[in-house]
């Protein structure tokens, strides 16, 4: 299928309203010089929208909004819907625009959750908010791009139609099986050839629901794990952070002193961590350290690099990267004790990244720099050769960045290219910096992206006279994060500060095409962290995960309470999750649990710290930084009525963090707990109470996490089934009531007769099915907690259309056994579908119900 994008032509099909002279058709023309070239809604509380009809059936991949200038009428927040008809449309984008003249392009979701691409004929844009609430909403221009080749689009349509047909049939099959209509279920399954689920899931269904073969059901769980049917659940589960403070020293018992705004890098092959410089609250530092991970020892490489030949001087807010191909370290940038602003816009703010009281405000509007007013300063670019412990002072040509601070730098060792983005100049104009690259082999700098400078409503372009930034320009910033994805050769740039505002956007810069795409305009609204400054980030390209630590939020004075985040990026736009600490270990761990993580205290929230990631061991190392002292984590009012800085405390602590992840053994344990709950409930109706109680104390107890209050509460509540005179599970409809007990559904338990086992409060878990002693495991365990199993909705109640008699297919499976009651069938089905929560989507029946597709009017789907 063709994947290239072309312009998509369209017409305005319908709209909610318009104001005089501001017709909907105006969005077809991109005319920035005409102030009337826009669609403007009427001012009302009604929902506003505009519906576009594509000239040809297409696959919509992006939408671009043209703008003229900042304007109170400009649309801010909006939604985009697509569909084959105006009556049936799907939301594919929810985002917001900036109030500036820079056009913005947004990627449109054109694959469904199963990965199938879908075509569209209609596009609906729904404005939600405007920059000035008292004004009407205006859209100046809309352009669309995507796949328009008729052959390719027809292939997409045919594939999507096949998917829809299959999915409808899967829902029908699910509906029939839930209602015990097994004969028509099997007939349709055979004739249609539709695959409802993985064969192991079918085997699990028959073992749990139809035959009650509990031992076989648990064996199937292990087969499912071996077949990888739990992989999606394991990958999507939220890992838990296991922190350990490192107290190692050098040969003299020393460690790097307290500091913030320092730099670190790691040599993963030799297992070395390098640390250089920083600000200790009084002065900039120039000491250079190395930590040996294998030997667990610090080494002072230089007490003062400024005394070394060609060595860098004291500094903070610089950056340092390691080049694995040449075994070298590159250091760039600086903020030293003399680098202080004198701008008239000074305010009293916390220090920038641990530097000496630096004000982060940009210069006044009339101090806009020009190329002629910028003499090239002395280079602050160094290379350290690890083999011979020597420094080299490197030059920066006219295409390189100025001396900057609070920038970000990454190294592409395979290509031997260094990338530097953002930061602010350490000179009196304190200008922002753009995106640059340094070719190590050619010793040559290149300017990859210009940067526009916003001073209230004016826009200027660095290194370009009167040119205009494009929609692929990444707004420059400082105190941000930048990550190199080595497989796709893309840069992930996010957060930081610009124009005295903390950011929560994310851009992906494609190195090969020199283009940038905005992934999030506000990742906070998408479940990510708050806008933050001087947070740190590292990447695991094998897991396709980015880990974010710490940073300032809000008014430059508050540390995030939940400051550690995980960002998964296999698919756009990616997903955010908080990294919570792992809490609680089993009180009496067994020998098999010796590999369980040992949990210590967690590091306090901070900013201006440094982190590196050891990929082979998948371990994060964190050092130092600045934290708000005591409980003074907010700006406070001084005696003179001025705002004072909150007290700062610089740190010298050193931590390692690994992520405890959910294992397949844990999912097997949880599934076994569900199965044994159901087995026990049925035993209570068919066997002697003592036998049932012994089964509860042995077989059920061994798969319970007794450190989890929810699981423990549910485990103890199971005892009530022994005390009840009757249970819903034993209520057999009179139409099929028999004389024989249903003891064949409970299976044969192997009870022990030790009377000490009758104390229900003293059961201990073992690790036979995986270690259950970790209190919080990263996957919501609601379906095995004190809450009931997921309901199959009202259709499973006695008064609905579930077949109340045994289906002929059941009789074929067990011709000599008594029929199962309707209530037993419902309870077993609940158990089966609760286990399906752990199974990959493509291996199980679809989510949802056919009943959800029926409209209130009963004749609309």
Describe this structure in words.
- Residues 1-147 form the F5/8 type C domain.
- This is Muskelin N-terminus-domain-containing protein.
- Residues 343-362, 752-768, 792-806 have a biased composition (Polar residues).
- One of its GO terms (cellular component) is cytoplasm.
- This protein is α+β, with helices and mostly antiparallel strands.
- It has three domains: 6-148, Galactose-binding domain-like (Jelly Rolls); 200-211 and 672-844, no CATH class; 240-337 and 346-355 and 378-590 and 599-660, Kelch-type beta propeller (Neuraminidase), CATH 2.120.10.
- The protein has eleven helices and 46 strands.
- Strands 1, 2, 4, 5, 6, 7, 8 and 10 form an eight-stranded antiparallel beta sheet that branches. It has a five-stranded mixed beta sheet with strand order 41-11-46-43-42, with no helix packed on it. Strands 12-13-14-15 form a four-stranded antiparallel beta sheet, with no helix packed on it.
- A hairpin with a 2-residue loop joins β30 and β31.
- α1 (150-178) packs antiparallel against α2 (182-192) and α6 (664-686) packs antiparallel against α11 (822-835).
- The longest helix has 29 residues, at 150-178.
- The radius of gyration is 32 Å and the shape is globular.
- The two termini are 31 Å apart.
